[in-house]
Design goal:
By secondary structure, this protein is an alpha/beta fold. It has nine helices and eleven strands. The protein has two domains: 167 residues, 3-Layer(aba) Sandwich (Rossmann fold), CATH 3.40.50.1110; 69 residues, no CATH class. Strand 7 and strand 8 form a beta hairpin. InterPro entries: SGNH_hydro_sf.
């Protein structure tokens, strides 16, 4: 009887382990390969999504262009090497690809023109928006094609992949497999996505270029220096924000303010789910930590 009990316990334990594996899925972890000491680059390319270019010229939802992860990394590189330069490329269209033909079109027409043999570093920060079954299926091979293309056209470049503020099990697997095949360093950032590191509704963003925004208000006050203090509701919650404007108009009947200037207010919960300044700082620090950059 005791042998039967022991056997039964082993079966239950095995089922539990399999169930846990299916429940938790693929684990996102750093991948580190021995490429020697990290050398400060002269020229770099950043390929990213909304975390790189979601607020126009900088990452969503940093409060300004000096506060996203790219800006933090760039400052450290410039301090060590004043001649350092970099380029940013949006990879959201690559994330949206549903087949190899679309991927090859992006690689040939968007990526290859910005790859150079004098690049020292390429940072990939995509995968978060690979969010349908067809995209995920294509991305399994596409992630490898992306790295292979970089290696072919920028053979000197060290490649680093940062993933993922938003994660899925299949994309984790695809990214890890591609990085393992080509010995690419993977910086895992999923642990940073938590309260305190995300942006918030009501956060004021200072844009690089002038823009306009309309907002339904409950009340507003005109302050000095063309500033507006606006009270508004989102999802039944009350918020208050102050923005600097160049001009504004009020549709009193609709209770809608429209203003022009460089500042906008975050009112969308999906935008607010992106990193705030603290989250971006921590992403950059993870990058430095994994690459052992002082």
């Amino acid at each position: 009887m005791k042998y039967f009990s022991s056997y039964l316990c082993l079966i239950i334990l095995s089922i539990t382990m399999v169930s846990c594996d299916k429940f938790f899925g693929e684990e996102l972890t750093d991948l580190i390969f021995d490429h020697g000491k990290f050398e400060m680059p002269d020229k770099a390319l950043f390929i990213g999504n909304s975390l790189l270019l979601g607020n126009g010229a900088f990452g969503m939802n940093a409060t300004d262009s000096t506060s996203d992860y790219h800006a933090v990394i760039q400052r450290k590189f410039l301090k060590a090497n004043p001649a350092y330069t970099d380029t940013k490329l949006s990879g959201v269209d690559f994330e949206a690809c549903e087949n190899r033909a679309q991927q090859m079109n992006w690689l040939d027409n968007r990526l290859c023109p910005v790859l150079r043999d004098d690049l020292d570093l390429v940072v990939i920060q995509i995968g978060d928006n690979v969010n349908t079954s067809r995209k995920r299926e294509a991305f399994e091979q596409g992630a490898k094609e992306l790295i292979a293309t970089i290696k072919a056209y920028a053979p000197r470049a060290r490649i680093v992949w940062i993933y993922g503020w938003y994660v899925s099990n299949s994309v984790i697997k695809s990214v890890k497999n591609a990085c393992k095949q080509y010995a690419v360093t993977l910086v895992a950032i999923d642990g940073i996505n938590k309260a305190g590191n995300r942006s918030l509704i009501g956060t004021v963003i200072t844009r690089v270029d002038p823009t306009s925004q309309s907002l339904n208000y409950t009340r507003y006050t005109v302050l000095s220096d063309n500033r507006l203090q606006i009270d508004f509701n989102v999802g039944g919650k009350k918020y208050k924000a102050i923005v600097q404007t160049e001009s504004y108009s009020d549709n009193a009947e609709a209770k809608t303010l429209t203003w022009q200037g460089y500042e906008t207010i975050t009112t969308d919960k999906d935008i607010a789910s992106h990193p705030g300044n603290n989250g971006f700082e921590q992403i950059a620090q993870r990058f430095f930590e994994v690459l052992n950059i002082d």
